[in-house]
Design brief:
By secondary structure, the chain is α/β, with parallel strands linked by helices. The protein folds into 3 domains: about 130 residues, Rossmann fold (3-Layer(aba) Sandwich); about 80 residues; about 200 residues, Rossmann fold (3-Layer(aba) Sandwich). It is built from 17 helices and 18 strands. The strands form 4 sheets. A 6-stranded mixed beta sheet has the order 6-7-8-3-9-10, sandwiched between helices. The radius of gyration is 32 Å and the shape is globular.
Length: about 525
């Protein structure tokens, strides 16, 4: 056993995270944790690491047994500050070597000098050399850790190499395939299967969940539900659960209908008996001769009513899983002015950017195409988007947009909002001259209903932020959507919702993404950017 949780409760401020949580993690376990954004997946990792820094967090009935501290942790953030860049270390050590106090102390100076020598020595461990080669990472960039020169995928690769080189006993990996290109994902999957013995993964990457896991843990209702198989097995089991609940509900409803009819029959029978009894009493006959009096009839009806109440209570206690058809953004409700010609024409374009040489002789994006741009990390995908949007200029050549094209850009880091705004305020600030009831109506079409319109932007999950940003783009007249890795931090349900919305969007789309599970829902064409790399 590596660690054990026994009836652990966790509260964050006013929010309950876990209740009576029980879980055992053993050697050679390969486990994935899934659940909606904000449900407590990262909180679970923090519990394992005993690294809950927020003072508002309380552990109750804490019984956590951890047998080894040799854990490797991959955070989801793309920030490299926790690695401390080699270049920054060297600068700091150089300053220390000139410090008069350190110069006067031979022991301190020797220590600083040894640290400086280690950093300037480009000899890597054998494991590092193997991993750099395996993940096809630039050795010079690895040594310098120049974060400004790294794409999102290269940052993920750098962090994975540094983590795996330490050969920990077990690993906690938070979204390890985020930003990675298709080839690197396959390399990661194989390495996890062949080289890493024990790990827990938080991921919304369906292929990873199917390829690299033996157990799926779903967090729901403050507890773990464990499924002994991969993600496909989990989906099959969830479908069986849903069907069983639907059958049970139908059975209960049938019983209720029968009991309700039974009550009605008793009422009619009782009324008829009482009517007959009254008629015969007028002729001097005894009421008991007719088999029933009013009291016994009422008693029979009372028992039936009790049965109905009991059945209804049982029926109401059955919770049906979320029905996917209800989770659809109603994008067809909106009116769009679709571009009536080719939206983008690229002619004899050349662009040099760092080590990238991009050259596109002739490329046209048509007005009904939904195109995915793919390619290795650092191959120029985001650069092409910036060129089309005019954020950077080509060295030579031309990019022409159709006159009636209005680009709506959705990035992987959504920052274009006020944290303290409610959803109503955020849309009101667009100054579209809309009444509140209209704004509520539009929010409803994007699955924000009732009091959810008063939710603050800072409290939204990743999927909710994507939804509100997409709504803002549509309301402001965007008819050509450009998206850069929009699904990196979305749970699987949110990805499904976004994929269906983009499938319903009537205009053209240009998207950078390596998530084929997501892309297959709406993309009509894929382009490999490496065809245009020199």
């Amino acid at each position: 056993m590596i660690f054990k949780f026994d009836k652990v409760n966790l509260v964050h401020g006013e929010k309950k995270i876990f209740e009576n949580l029980e879980f055992i993690f053993n050697e050679n376990d390969k486990v994935a944790i899934i659940g909606e954004n904000g449900i407590g997946k990262t909180s679970f990792f923090n519990l394992i690491l005993e690294n809950i820094k927020n003072k508002n967090t309380k552990l109750e009935n804490k019984d956590i047994t951890i047998t080894t501290q040799d854990v490797g942790y991959l955070e989801q953030t793309q920030d490299l500050s926790n690695l401390t860049l080699a270049s920054e270390k060297l600068l700091e050590l150089e300053k220390q070597m000139l410090d008069e106090e350190i110069l006067a102390d031979s022991e301190k100076y020797e220590k600083v000098l040894n640290q400086y020598s280690e950093l300037t020595n480009e000899n890597l461990s054998q494991k590092e050399e193997e991993l750099i080669k395996l993940f096809k990472f630039n050795k010079e960039l690895y040594l310098k850790e120049l974060s400004n020169d790294l794409s999102g995928g290269e940052i993920t690769k750098l962090k994975l190499i540094k983590l795996f080189a330490k050969e920990h006993k077990y690993y906690l990996l938070d979204e390890p395939s985020n930003h990675l290109d298709v080839q690197t994902k396959q390399t990661l999957y194989k390495y996890l299967n062949d080289e890493i013995e024990s790990y827990i993964i938080i991921s919304h990457d369906v292929e990873l969940l199917n390829t690299c896991t033996q157990r799926i843990i779903e967090i729901k209702d403050y507890k773990f539900t464990i499924y002994h198989g991969n993600y496909e097995y989990y989906l099959d089991e969830k479908q069986i659960e849903t069907q069983n609940l639907l059958k049970l509900k139908a059975h209960n409803q049938n019983q209720i209908n029968k009991l309700t009819q039974n009550i009605e029959n008793l009422k009619q029978w009782s009324s008829r008996k009482l009517r007959d009894m009254t008629t015969h009493l007028k002729h001097g006959q005894v009421a008991s001769n007719f088999g029933i009096g009013r009291g016994s009839a009422d008693s029979g009806m009372g028992e039936s009513r009790k049965k109905v109440v009991k059945m209804r209570a049982k029926l109401d206690s059955i919770e049906l899983p979320e029905i996917k058809n209800e989770n659809e953004i109603k994008i067809r409700y909106f009116e769009f002015k679709i571009p009536y010609t080719n939206v983008v024409k690229i002619n004899k374009l050349k662009k040099t950017y760092n080590t990238l040489n991009l050259e596109i002789d002739d490329l046209i994006f048509e007005n009904k195409e939904k195109i995915a741009i793919q390619g290795k990390n650092g191959s120029g995908k985001s650069t092409l988007l910036k060129l089309i949007m005019g954020e950077i200029k080509p060295d030579s050549g031309h990019i022409t947009l159709a006159e009636n094209v209005h680009i709506g850009y959705l990035s992987q880091k959504i920052k274009n909002y006020n944290n303290e705004n409610t959803l109503l305020q955020e849309l009101t600030n667009l100054k579209l001259d809309l009444e509140e009831h209209d704004i509520r109506k539009y929010l409803g079409k994007f699955l924000f209903i009732k009091n959810q319109v008063f939710k603050k932007m800072k409290d939204l999950s990743g999927g909710e932020k994507i939804r509100i940003e997409l709504l803002k783009l549509i309301l402001t007249g965007s008819n050509y959507l450009i998206l850069d890795e929009p699904t990196n931090h979305l749970d699987i349900i949110s990805k499904d919702v976004l994929g269906k919305a983009l499938a319903d969007f009537p205009g053209p789309i240009l998207i950078v993404s390596h998530d084929d599970y997501f892309l297959e829902k709406f993309v009509t064409k894929k382009i490999d950017i490496e065809e245009f790399n020199l």
